């Protein structure tokens, strides 16, 4: 399994403008909705905020992996994004998040959804990968990095 197999280059955003958890989620789902049919941005944001109310997806080390299940999706959607400034995402280590991977899955695809979440988490535990992600100069560099992971 390669991370690049699940992230379309149209869904890689090198600089988020959002500065709050709610606005990050809105920006991520809006970006996804522009390229993937079946995503209602308002409903997706509600699903993600509901998931966040159960416990933060800010896992520490500057990483957040918001995720949820949506009716109407045919395939799993993965969005990768970066915030150089960082966003308070209620992370477990109380530090700002800079790396975001959004995972939206059809309601009926639980197994693959969990495998992709685990793969993203394992990939992001690699300090070299995180550093390269944060230091990538532009979208093309981010795409190459993610496609190779």
Number of helices: 5
Low-confidence stretches: none
How many β-strand stretches? 6
Span between termini: 9 Å
Rounded average pLDDT: 95
Name the helicity range.
40-55%
Structural class: alpha/beta
Which percent range describes the beta-strand content? Answer: 15-25%
Question: How many whole angstroms does the radius of gyration measure?
Answer: 14 Å
Q: How many strands, which pairing sense, and closed or not: the largest β-sheet?
A: 6 strands, mixed
Care to describe what's here?
With 149 residues, the protein is an alpha/beta fold. Helices cover 42% and strands 21% of the residues. It contains five helices and six strands; from the N terminus they run βααβββββααα. Strands 1, 2, 3, 4, 5 and 6 form a six-stranded mixed beta sheet that branches. A hairpin with a 2-residue loop joins strand 2 and strand 3. The longest helix is centred in the C-terminal third of the chain and has 16 residues. The termini are close together.
């Amino acid at each position: 399994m390669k991370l690049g197999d699940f992230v379309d280059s149209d869904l890689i955003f090198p600089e988020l403008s959002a500065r709050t958890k709610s606005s990050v989620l809105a920006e991520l789902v809006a970006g996804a909705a522009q390229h993937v049919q079946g995503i209602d941005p308002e409903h997706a944001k509600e699903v993600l905020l509901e998931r966040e109310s159960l416990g933060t997806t800010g896992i520490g080390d500057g990483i957040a992996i918001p995720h949820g299940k949506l009716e109407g999706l045919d395939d799993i959607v993965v969005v990768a994004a970066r915030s150089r400034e960082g966003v308070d995402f209620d992370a477990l280590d109380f530090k700002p998040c800079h790396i975001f991977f959004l995972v939206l899955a059809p309601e009926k695809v639980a197994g693959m959804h969990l495998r992709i979440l685990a793969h993203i988490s394992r990939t992001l535990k690699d300090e070299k990968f995180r550093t390269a992600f944060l230091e990538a100069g532009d979208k093309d560099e981010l795409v190459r990095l993610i496609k190779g992971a």
